[in-house]
UniProtKB/TrEMBL annotation, chain A:
Matches recorded under HAMAP family: UreD
Protein name listed in UniProt: Urease accessory protein UreD
Native species: Streptomyces poonensis
Top-level taxonomic group: Bacteria
Region (Disordered): 1-42
A single cellular component GO annotation: cytoplasm
TrEMBL record, chain B:
Official protein name in the record: Urease accessory protein UreF
Record carries keyword Cytoplasm: yes
Top-level taxon of the source organism: Bacteria
Species per Swiss-Prot/TrEMBL record: Streptomyces poonensis
Cellular-component GO terms for this entry: cytoplasm
Known partners and oligomeric status: UreD, UreF and UreG form a complex that acts as a GTP-hydrolysis-dependent molecular chaperone, activating the urease apoprotein by helping to assemble the nickel containing metallocenter of UreC. The UreE protein probably delivers the nickel.
Keyword terms: Chaperone, Cytoplasm, Nickel insertion
HAMAP family: UreF (MF_01385)
Recorded family membership: Belongs to the UreF family.
Amino acid sequence: MTTAATGGVRATTRISATADGRGGTALPVLEGEGPLAPRRTRAVSGDEARVMLVGAMSGPLGGDHFTVAAAAGAGARLHVGSAAATIALPGQTKGGARYDVRLEVAAGGELRWLPEQLISAAGSELYVSSHIGLAPGARLVFREEQVLGRAGEEPGRLTSRLTVRLGGRPLLDQEVACGPGTPGGWDGPAVLGGHRALGQLLVVRPEYEKDVPEARLFGECAALTPLAGPAVLVTAVAGDALRLRRVLDEALAALG
Amino acid sequence: MTRAALLVLADGRFPAGGHAHSGGAEAAVRAGRITGTPELEDFCRGRLHTAGLVAAGLAAAAAAGMDPLELDAAADARTPSYALRGAARRLGRQLMRAARAAWPSGELDALARAFPKGAHQPVVLGLAARAAGLGPEDAAYCSAYESVSGPATATVRLLSLDPFDATGVLARLAPETDLVVRRAVEAARRAVDEGVDALPAASGPLSEIGAEGHAGWAVRLFAS
């Protein structure tokens, strides 16, 4: 972790999981400090390694640049969660904060990326960029949830881009932008319609190559749709974080 | 090139099947999210900066001569909704027929052969503009404008809205349409050098969700 010339914090967290040769998953790389310290926790199932991201500082604040890079090798099963929600806050320096997520999964590897929500607090400005590279035969569960403002608060400015490639080909590329200063209509009936929580759940499974689940709705504000590849995406909006999580959990359970 | 070709391509009466689609307006009307002119304007503005920007970027890149197969894959990745991918390909196929009749071109023929069931409409539109001797900016204008003119005309039918009011919405959105076209063309220029990831990927969650619901209705006025 370093403090950049702009006054912001630059911090990188790296997690690498490999098969340990005895049916389990080893974590040869587990490094990072400050805002995003990775801690190994007890896994629920025997062959999986579970990592919790623990934030020892608040932020990201304006001017900060956080990076989390995680990789699951062939035969490795990695589950990454976070101990608490991430709150984007305004900083003392001008300019926005950046949060980069870089995920790689090898053929026969599995990554379950299930962090807590990202909350965009009033006055904050954050650009999130998530790049996921999957080899053919990789398995992925990826959830992201954004909450616009803390309770009763106006949101900050948030832009979040999710780019997923499978075998080098684009599988999913989506950007949501919301909050003051964003091009118009973001809160209108084509985009968020006044909802203050939005989320996506991406599930990639090699067996979907042959048989992918059909499109369906979960209530009026969430839909599951098969992508042009062995994957499904659940898109949801909700009044608050709790209701959003409930519908994403329901969708994940329905996929079995 | 002839400037009038732009009018032919952008004309709502160009026989490319666009009139059968509401650009998500029918689902939004049924859900009670569009009830009159102010909501229509908000809907169109959101759509312009999301689906409109993405379509304009793809069309501009195709008009600039980027590989249409790569652009079609980029369009798939930017259209998670299964229903909307189907609609985009059906519209692409219809536009292809009209464009090949209007401006015969080897590039259009090759794309039609590669996608017998239709390529994504903005990619076809970009190639059609190219075949007509038009440029990336022209193609982006067609796409961006279409993203709002479709819902506006559809809402006139769905809500019996005064057509003068709907046209007023489109006129008020004109300066923002210029802005979106500039962003799209700039992104397409970068994409020529850096690849398709440089193209816009803006999305509207409610539009994506609404499209999946709409596709399941037994009776509907519009195809999407």
